[in-house]
Amino acid sequence: MKVTRWFWIQLVLFQALWLICVIGQNDWILLALMMLGVHFMFSPVAKQDVRVLSLALIGISIDATLTMTGVFEFGAFPFWLGLLWIGFSLSLGHSLGWLKKIPTVLLIPMAAVMGSASYLGGWKLDAVELPFGVITSMLLLALIWACLLPLLLKLDTRLRSV
Fold first, then answer.
1. Ramachandran region of residue 70, left (φ > 0), alpha (ψ -120 to 50) or beta?
2. Which of 17, 56, 69, 135 could serve as 89's disulfide partner, Cβ 3.0–4.6 Å?
3. Interatomic CA distance for residues 97 and 34, integer angstroms
4. Considering the entire predicted model, what is its pTM?
5. Cβ(91)–Cβ(55) below 8 Å
6. 3-state SS, residue 73
7. Are 35 and 13 in contact (CB under 8 A)?
8. What is the pLDDT of residue 15?
9. How many degrees, rounded to 5, is the angle at CA 44 between CA 46 and CA 52?
10. 133-160: b (≥16 Cβ within 10 Å) or e
11. Per-residue pLDDT, 2
12. Which of 145, 134, 85 is nearest to 112 (CA)?
């Protein structure tokens, strides 16, 4: 598989978006929106990217449910989290596209670890509180991500092929 320059640009954009959203939270929303704009300006498949934006709603809904049930607490309403979900959804067809080649039996434990680790990073950077405790929250997130990532990757493939 040939890795293009766009792969690396998009990878850096998404990592920067994660940091901007988690560190700056709502204060840096304009910068986060600009990062998403850069993605669309340079994406070689911007029309496909528009089709997968709906995938962000799945993640936003899950995080909203976790917030409403007390698993997450935020100092202020986390508008930045929605932008982060948009960036993540876009990455599924670009810098995270390599995950589609991994057999599901291996993807599930990878997703459990990687997904929950992202929230752990957010907790360590004071972007989210975990009232149920770190261990309980991470176990719950690992279970969610073990199911969520394989689903999102399949949906991304389907939406991009329409």
1. left
2. 56
3. 23
4. 0.95
5. no
6. strand
7. yes
8. 97
9. 35
10. eeeebbebbbebbbebbbebbebbeebb
11. 57
12. 145
